[in-house]
Amino acid sequence: MKQVLPEVGTRLPERAVSPFTSAELAAYADISGDTNPLHLDTGIARKAGLAAPPVHGMLLFAAFEPLLREWRPDLRIGRLSGRFTQPVLEGEPVTLSGRVVRVSEGETPQILLRLMANGTSRAPALVGEAVLTPREAP
Description:
Thiol Ester Dehydrase, Chain A
């Protein structure tokens, strides 16, 4: 049975992500090895002109994985890429969104999605892409 692929223009359901806490930033720093004090120390963040420590970019990017998995559990993430355009700060709510921009059918179909993460500002904090491919049938 041929798998039904999403259509170009299909939007992912928007997802509000709870604000990242200082404890979550510290835990991510420990696990990832990214212990840059800018992400962990409010005083240093303020000296850099930020009201609070910025969320690690890769931690923000990782928030897309559950959204993609829940949207289409029959697909797997083949590639993620993105560009961070402005910081999301500790304690700031984030909204994740995305839409299908290309579907390539063939031996191994690929679905290209444009991803965006928005903090409280109107401009996106992250603009990215995900390439999804069908999971192999068990």
